[in-house]
UniProtKB/TrEMBL annotation:
This is Zinc metallopeptidase. The keyword Membrane applies. The chain crosses the membrane at residues 6-26, 124-146, 152-172, 204-225. Pfam families: Zn_peptidase_2. It comes from Anaerolinea thermolimosa. Keywords: Membrane, Transmembrane, Transmembrane helix. PANTHER family: MEMBRANE PROTEASE YUGP-RELATED (PTHR36434:SF1). It comes from the Bacteria.
Amino acid sequence: MGGFYFGGYGLYLLFSLPALILGFWAQIKVQSAFNKYSRIRTFTGLTGAEVARRILDSHGLTSVKVEQTSGFLSDHYDPISRTLRLSPNVYRSNSIAAAGIAAHEAGHALQHAENYFPLQIRSAIVPTVQIGSWLGPIIFMLGLFLLGNTVAWVGLILFAATAVFALITLPVEFDASNRAKAILATSGMVYNTEMQGIHSVLDAAALTYVAAAIQAVSTVLYYLFLLSGRQRD
């Protein structure tokens, strides 16, 4: 194997470093945008919980619950229980950042209600991703070094589901952000002068999903390179 391995970690960094750098930069942008606009109150003074509730109710989703959850920026929509969960810094806050994040999560509820196809696909492959994300690399390495190429291919295919999930996540997240921006721009819940902050927060968050997708694809390519090198040897 030695001719293609290139010292293991060095080769892995060759594949993953661009995504790691992008991910680090994206996290900085998210923190910067959130810190800046979480200190600026909207003119309407609506909290994140109130923004989410108004969006849901105006689209006929009165049965979707809005709850507070623990954690920092742990905001998410749960399609199983039809519950929108907002972190304390969003649920209770009347900042521009809170309005943008709450509207984004409400956008996921709208997607669910409309049977948005990419969201359906993403939800369907969650069980496979949960297994493949941790079991795939283990099976791959066992196959690569001990059990043979067939087992390694099984591990690679399992882990590839993670990359598929990350790629499908992109249109889901972009669409939710676009819905949030459009609703906030026309609903009167924020003023037009505040939309720049909404764009900054949501665009920075979107960049983290791009970085995650590139990282997942890079890892699959790394495994594929190792396996193809093994087969050549």
